[in-house]
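cache lookup: miss for this entity combination. No prior model stored, computing from scratch. Input as submitted by user K.M.:
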Amino acid sequence: MDGEELTEQETALYDRQIRVWGVDAQRRLSKAHILVSGMKGTVVEFCKNIVLAGVGSLTLVDDRLVTEEALSANFLIPADESVYDGKSIAELCCDSLKDFNPMVRVSVERGDLTSFGGDFYNKFDVVVVSCCSLAAKKLINEKCRKLSKRVAFYTVDCRDSCGEIFVDLQNYAYSKKKLDETVECRLQYPSFEEAIAVPWRALPRKVSKLYFAMRVIERFEQVEGRNPGETSIADLPGVLKLRKELCEAHSLNESQIPDALLERLVTATREFPPVCAVIGGILGQEVIKAISCKGEPLKNFFFFDAMDGKGIIEDITKPVHLKPSSFGERGVISL
Amino acid sequence: MASQQQLCVIEGAKVLMVGAGGIGCELLKTLALSGFTNIHIIDMDTIEVSNLNRQFLFRKSHVGQSKAKVARDAVLRFRPQISITPYHANVKDSDFNVDFFKQFNVVLNGLDNLDARRHVNRLCLAADVPLVESGTTGFLGQVTVHVKGKTECYECQPKPTPKTYPVCTITSTPSKFVHCIVWAKDLLFAKMFGDKNQDNDLNVRSGDASSSSEHAEDVFERRKDEDIEQYGRRIYDHVFGYNIEVALSNEETWKNRNRPKPIYYRDILPEEQSQQNGNVDKICATDDPSSVSAMISLGLKNAQDVWSLIENSRIFLEALKLFFAKREKEIGNLSFDKDDQLAVEFVTAAANIRAASFGIPLHSLFEAKGIAGNIVHAVATTNAIIAGLIVIEAIKVLQSDTKNYRMTYCLEHPSRKMLLMPVEPFEPNKSCYVCSETPLTLEVNTQRSKLRDFVDKIVKAKLGMNFPLVMHGAALLYEVGDDLEEDMVANYAANLEKVLSELPSPVTGGTMLTVEDLQQEFSCTINIKHREEFDEEKEPDGMLLSGWTQASPVVKNEKAPIGNGGSTSNALPAVQLDAEDDDELEVLPVGTDTVPAGKKRKLAGSSNATTSGTSSVADETRNHKTQEVLDDDDDDVVMLGDGNSDSSKKRKLL
Ligand SMILES: [Zn+2]
């Protein structure tokens, strides 16, 4: 790094975490700029984690006004309605987050993420989107990819007691400890669009059922023109029909996407706070890793279901036809 | 979102949280959001600056206030309608007795030390209230469920013993930096600034003990009218020069080791022989003893830098001088405290000079402070994840959904694609002295050891009792309590000083003692076995407790270890991270080399588990246990057994 020292104040505040990830990582964190959109429970958890960690700045996007639903898993919005005063959810969250760590600049951007251009995204190192449509995810991901600098892109969503994280770090180099040595590694990520285009039959046999279920729901919302999360039990027949079509197209056995799972995902409109905490925590850790370039980041999906308690990483990548010898485990190339 | 049935048990539940620190803040928030309406929370700690990076309910303006109370107020801001009852108190206080525990449907631990964890475990067993236990360190964490009769209790498996070191490693043959830290902190610092009457091994292990002990007799005493500079140089030469020469004279020691190099003041700082260094009076304008710092007076700013031998020597002499110049009143009563800047500087410098002498790499003050203070590595994200998992288990416990209880490990590196790995809980250990009635065995020289040794070293230290009562048949040998008659108190005090075999009701080989803790409502039986001799090095207590716990290891350095944590369970191995901090939980899974003897893990059905050691739970580098890969289509099965297949337990890893 450029040798800038942490202030005494920073050293005292961040003492315990510097012992985990080191001074260098802390310096990089303090220069990182993060954009998040969709201030629901999971993103709120993530924001808390990243503000405590001491990033340089955090920009929030969510123009919605407070509703009872918005309050359900959001601990950043006080119960006292007198402070709402026409403020958007992002603005209310911003007020609380500033309080968590005075060393982090927290601000709000109004407007529709999909309408922002490259200049806007160019200001950030990390972009996290939640509660947005399939089309919006693809579009924002592409905007980040077109920039000359590398912007880490994440999507995160929780439904019922399930959660999903998608990660695109593009072409990413990092160091990791192997035995007593530090080795440099490189990972190549597909975009969201590329990842979900991988034919299902090309995927390993035991890919998490949640991966397929989330794709079915996502497609359903797109086809029906719904907002993200805007489904109910009445949609189940339509969802099951779509599952049949998709499974046939992909030559996948329908039993890989159980009815019960789809029913849970379609029915539950509110988040389950413990799952928000788990997913927001994992996402926080991943973003910290990506910024500090220390430790192996997850590639490229993460799933958690409170029903079975497993937190699983799935690598959804088009099989690469290269000499296997140049690759380590999971497509890692040692430099 | 939670189902209707879940919401019902959540709203009706009365929950006790123990600990409002790193996990506690996250847990209280997640409980409140999840719909819990009646939460009691106990924490004796007050808020410190180094908590603020993760204990997000606290602000700088709260430093010094009760964690439990501030956490309550913060959560009520977003959930004002729920009831949170805070206690700024120690969970071991007698108010928190079995009746107190009985009012709760579940107890959730976010604790930072082994002692309190054991205490809560016993109260939960006595009150028959389920316990969800947790711990984190760095990116690692775990959550376990303890329900009496259904799953193992927190103490069913021996906890890894705190890390301790053989005395001679510390006094004569250090090979790691931590040995130098222990020497600097527990021997040198204690000798210079602590209680002079304490035993101290600083000058032992020379080939010719008699000559050195005479020399050592008064060497640390500052002579009348001795100039402080002169005194500092004399101490420097004695501990880094003379003592090393003495050690070198014992040729036997160095046959297979690198010989250390004596370090003398004149060789390191020759040009400063006569001149004064530093300037105490000019720099310390304030009289606040806590702001005195050798780094400041020598103009060293960065605690992350590794100082040279010369810089360490200057810091050592300056710190020593400052103690005498600015904090003389405290000398004789000091014990090392990681928040005492000058003490940390002294210990860092002394450890580094010793390290230089033994060819061990030097370390920065920041690193030395972490080692000396056993500072827990802590980040917000792990605590948040663990808190989420605690709530998930708590809801299952409230629904008595026994077959779905899980212990979950949060890993830093994925194991078989998993970062969060659930495992079925163990059944209670039938030989557990806490939750079953299996007796323990104590080997002791009944003609030499006193009742006091037994009470202090076994009943309190090993069995973790606070208000013990010792009985031989119907005869009471010892008890503690506020309401005892005076003559009884005198009687017990007299008993403490008696040798076991000379007690009013003599304790000899074959005696069966009953030991009880009235507050914990916990008792156990100890069979006494007389033994003449004990190895001073390996069995410094002069006693050996067995039956459940492992034989106590050697060593000195009682302070460093205080092992806190201990893992909450050991379905997967646990590595003791001897942490001892303000707030956090440590504990962690990982590292197969601590699997209880003979246990073997079988991992199944996963394509990436191999026998070559790639997959252990978290720490790939030290997996030297056998792993057998089974091929199983759908379920991942982990088998834990004693090595012989008929006694192996099979469990499913979901
Ligand atoms: Zn037990």
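stored under new cache key. The domain at 440-546 of chain B is CATH 3.10.290.20 (Structural Genomics Hypothetical 15.5 Kd Protein In mrcA-pckA Intergenic Region; Chain A).
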